[in-house]
Each structure stands twice: as C-alpha cells, then as structure tokens.
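In the previous chapter we treated chains in isolation. Here, by contrast, the input contains four separate entities that must be folded as one system, with a combined length of 726 residues.
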Amino acid sequence: MGISERKKRILAAVIDEYIRTAEPVGSKHLAENAGLGCSSATIRNELAELVALGYLEQPHTSAGRVPTPMGYRMYVNEFMEKQKLSLEESEDLNRRLNQKLQELDDTIGSISRLASQLTDYPALALTAAAPVTVKRVDLIYVDANTFIIVLMLSGNTVKSKLVHLPVSVDQGMVQKLSTLFNSGFTGIPEDQITPLLIHSTERAADDGMGLTSVIAAFIIETLSEAGTPEAFVSGENRLLNQPEFRDPDKAHRLMNYLSGGGYILPPAEGETEADSEIRVVIGPENVAEELKDSSVVIASYDAGDNMKGLIGVVGPTRMDYSMVAAKLRVLAAGLSRRLSSGEAPPEGLHNKLILKQNEDHKS
Amino acid sequence: MGISERKKRILAAVIDEYIRTAEPVGSKHLAENAGLGCSSATIRNELAELVALGYLEQPHTSAGRVPTPMGYRMYVNEFMEKQKLSLEESEDLNRRLNQKLQELDDTIGSISRLASQLTDYPALALTAAAPVTVKRVDLIYVDANTFIIVLMLSGNTVKSKLVHLPVSVDQGMVQKLSTLFNSGFTGIPEDQITPLLIHSTERAADDGMGLTSVIAAFIIETLSEAGTPEAFVSGENRLLNQPEFRDPDKAHRLMNYLSGGGYILPPAEGETEADSEIRVVIGPENVAEELKDSSVVIASYDAGDNMKGLIGVVGPTRMDYSMVAAKLRVLAAGLSRRLSSGEAPPEGLHNKLILKQNEDHKS
DNA sequence: TGTTGGCACTCTCTCTTTGCGAGTGCTAAT
DNA sequence: ATTAGCACTCGCAAAGAGAGAGTGCCAACA
C-alpha cells in the first residue's frame, strides 16, 4: 500500500510504544524517544494522516494516538518478522519444553501451561483432531470376573481399562474375543464400527454375556475421545495483569468464555500466510463475540500422521505480537519435532526416573 | 458459651444477611426484615454488645455491622447444621455427579469442576494420597522393537505405556521378564523398589539391554504419580463474582495462589469434628498467608483402601457456608459410595456408549 | 513544498469540597 | 428491660476547580 516509509516507521513506533505502556502515545514523546529524525510538529502532521487513513485513532481530541485493529494488522503483516529470539532465549525455551515433555502425564495440558507462563497471557492448546483407529487389541485375563482391555491406537498411544463382570468368563473366551477383535476392529475408523459389526462379532464368539459389546463400547469411547480435539486453557488469571482488564466485569466475561473451553478456532480463511504457521487474529477479526476486542495468536504443530494441533495465546489487542509469535513459533516447532518424529524426548527419561526414586526417598 | 438466645439469633441474622448482600447490616434493616420481635433500638444494644464480645465489627463508626472471623466460627459451629438440601436438589446433584463419573477421563478434575459449578466458588480436588502398589504386570509383545507395559494397581486402576526400543528383543525375553516382575514387584510399595531389586531382576532375566530398568522406571514413575496427591483447581475465575474481589490485584493474588496448586491443606488440627467430615477454615485460621482473608470448606471422601481424598471450595470469608457445606457433603458422600464400593456407576455405561455411537454419526 | 516552532484550545484526570443519608450511641420515657 | 427520639459521625457520590498533556493550525523558514 502506498504509505510513505516514514509513516510506516512512525506507525511502528506508536504501536511498539503503546504495546509497552498501554497509554496513548503523543507526538512529543515520539519525537524524543523514537529516534526518527524530525520534530514533534512533523510527527503531528503524519499522525493526523495516519488517523485519516484508519491506522490510528484518538480516544478523544487531544489525547495521544492509539492503534486501530487495522493498524495492528499492518504491524503484524509488515513489521513483525524482524523480531527473533536470541539464541539463548530459544535454547532456554527448548529446554523447558523438553522438561515438560518428559513428564508423561497430560502433555497437552502442560504445554498450554508452559505457553501461558512464557508469554504471561492466557494460553490454550488443542490436541490434534484426526480420525484415530485401533492398531491392536489385547485382552488380559485377570480372574473369572475381571479382565483388562488394552488398546493400541494409531498414534501409538495406549489406552487400557479394567472390566469387572457380574458373570464369569473363561480364559478361552477371552482368547477368542481377542482374536476376533484384532481381525475385525483394527484399522477402521470409529464410524465404521457399526452395530452390525458388533453383532456379528458377538455371534462369531458365541458370546451370550454381552462381553463383546462391553469391549466394543470401550473401543468406541476411546476412539471418539482420542479423535475429538480437546482444549486446555491455562493461565486465565494472567488476564488480570493487563490494564485493559482492570474492569473485573470485562475480565470475567472473557475468562468465562475461555474456561468454558471457548472455541477460538479462527475461520480458516486463506490468509496470505506469509508467516509460516503463525496466525494472528486481531480484535474484531475474531468471530466469537467475546473476543471482539482481544487478539489471538495461534501456532499449529504437527503431531504426526498428518494431524495438526494448535497452541494459542489470547490477550488484549495491544498484545505483544512479536514476542508471542516468536515464542509460539519455537514451541510449536519443538513440539512438532518431538511428536511427529519417532517418539519420546532424546534420552534421559530412564536415568531421570532412577534418580527420581532416590529423591522421593527423602520426603 | 454464655450468649443469650436472642444474641445468637441476631448474630445469625446479621451473618445471613451479610452473606447475601455483602453489605454491612444495620439495626433498622434487621428489625424490619429478620422477624425477631423487637425494635431497632434493642437490636442496637445487642449489636453493640456483640461487637464488644468480638463477634461483629464495624468498618467505621456509623456503618452497619460485619461479622468477624470469630463470628463466622460461631455461625459455622452452632447454626449451620440446620440447613439441609431439599430432596430434589440433592437428587439433581447426585444425577450430575453420576454423569461426571461416567466420563472415564480425568475424574478428579471434573469433580472439581462440578463442585465449582455447583457452588459458584473456585473449587479444588485432591486425589487420595496413599501408598499404591502394583497388583499385576503384563508385557505385551508387539514387534521386535516394541512392547506394551500394562500395570494393574491396587485400587484397580490400570496404567499402560508403549515402549519403543533401539534394540530388538524376542518374545521369550518379554515372557521371562513378565514372570519375574510379577513375582518380584507386585504388592510392594514404591520405596521398596530398590536399585538392588532392579539389578537382581536384571541378572535373573539375563537382560543385557536395559529392558528391566525401563520397565522398573515405568513402575516407579507410575507408583509415584499415583501415590502423589494431585490437585485440580477449577473455576478460579468465579472469584470475580464476589464483590470482595472487585479489586483486581486482590483477585489476582489469590487466583495465582490457587492456580499454582496452592496448597490449602489445613493443619489437621483435631477440631471438634462435630460435623462429620466437613471442615471449615475461616479467614485468619488459614495457614497460608494468601488465604488469610478467605475461607475454605473441605469435605473428604473415601476412595477405598483407606485412602482419603479431598474436595474443597474457596471463597471470601463471607461465604455461603451452609450452602457449600451441604453440597460438598452430598458430593463427597456420592464420591465415596462410588469409589470405595466396587467400581463404576450403577449401570448404563454400556448403553450410553452404544447410543453415543449413533449420535456421533451425525456430526 | 515539506518542515519547524509557537500558541491557543480542548479535553481528561485528579484533587477538593459539599451535601446527603445511613446508622449509631445516648437519654428519657414506658 | 424495652422502646422512641434525637443529635452526631462518617463515608460516599456528585459537583467544581485546576493542572497537564496533547492537539490543530498558522506563520516562518529551508
């Protein structure tokens, strides 16, 4: 767009400053601190034009200028890539990511916590949504009334469940069912597990006790759960750090929206994805009413098997886009590296656990 | 204690009213609405004495009265048991509890969410902390580089994990290890799994590839995780509903404390546990500095095997103790019933899942 | 033509003042 | 012992005044 170079520099300076201080930026301040070689009067003229063009606005006559969403958009599209994390920052970040990934519990939840912690904004993480299938079914016979179902899924995760029965089964039946399920239920997506299939399996196993349907139910439940994207929101309370949320009502509304798992998924509009894999949705660009004056930065990570997950950060429109984008980029890249390639983190898991044992002794 | 009956009634009325409105309660208001048969002047006298006794205080001369922690304490100890939930309320509550328990995912997290939702205060749930042991170990051979570890724990939960190896193993080794682990590692608590034990197992299996220690590490990690009480905090944002947290800083401080998993565990002082299993910790009675002007209501539930978990609710000292206590009581009782006795909820799990399958077709 | 200094003007923010009302404590009467 | 009445206190909200920041515009200058 035909904006003079100087206008761009001034716009960028205003936005940087506003992001830092959250206060309208005046011409004098700009002339003194932003190091563009001209006087406040000149800047005033330029500012006036930027207002006319729609990139800035003034809260009231005779206050400083504040960026409009359009201004932020320009900022994000044109000026942002300049910022990169220093090497040591990004190393530190990777270190912390590794640490999180080693804890074998709810990975995605802790990633969202990490993102929130790093950026000091609320963060959310969505697990990859992709059709999952069962790779392998094992049934472990425990006793006449008890067995364990173990499912290995297509993303190489394992789910298991203990089943107590009111009736008793013999080991042979468990064996038979195991074979039948492995041949009939593996490799197919949830929606192909029809009542028909279940019934025919039941007949083939000569199962009069409903065992088959218990197992099938667990498979269906597991597939559906694993295939449903799950959202984790963390650090909602960090909103309160932002001056624009000093109004408790405003903060409350947004927090409610977020902790309700408020869905943020932007319209997958074919933005000119200049910046690889990072999407920025500014204020009114959001579809959700609750987000109309907040911004969202979203990075997608590759979870292997063509699955994409998302990490996002929510903040006021006056959000530190560069910082957030830079950090999310590293985080998403690290996540992708870990998840799509082979498996767990580099090494050390095992050693760490052995060490841990000793630590625990103390407590 | 030697407080006249009327004083008690007045105190209770003040507290009830203050809980409702969050505003200092005046004598006139009390005379008109609280239905004690005397005039405002009389009440004024009584109020003055209650202030002298330390049950009430006035924010400033010539404002209404506000309960002190000591006042709340009296209220909790003496007047509270009166409130019971109506039958239908408690049925509704049980219904919702059942529903939550049926979702097989992180039960304890969703219980905490439920508690928060029901009371409209932040809630937290702690899993039972008790030494857990392994009941049974199964190793499922998948392919030369892959096997699945399945652990059945005391408490009848099952944990599993997929292990990829850089080297290849044969099925015989897996078999052998399975037997060894079942005889050597079952029934013993985490702290008895010594490096010594691991080494001797390793030798017995003639395992030169570190397989043994991978499995042992998983067992240790699992036991330690299952034995460590885990805290889930939900609904921190509901704090903002309370007028006492209109000050964002105050709200922020407490929310931070809470979402840091802030530990709330009250000193297990031998309170005269009149009210079965419900503990109320009022304002300054809390040990944590951050909670000094909040209150906590805690119910403990029985998770079987002598394990106790906690559900708690945090709010301002002006918290609706009766309501919270009543709801938590039902919740904890329901949880205990489900967890300690046998197993899953009454029935219907299976049917529900079959139904679910059809629903999912639509989407 | 683009840039700069100067100046009057506008508007918000903060501090102070003022008046009101709620609620108290005390006293005298029942 | 309870009640009615009354003077008093004190916080709070609305109103007013002053200060300061920043603008827009104009005239001068390169």
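The longest strand of chain B covers residues 134-143. Chain B touches chain A through 56 residues (CB under 8 Å). Compare these points with the single-chain example from earlier in the chapter.
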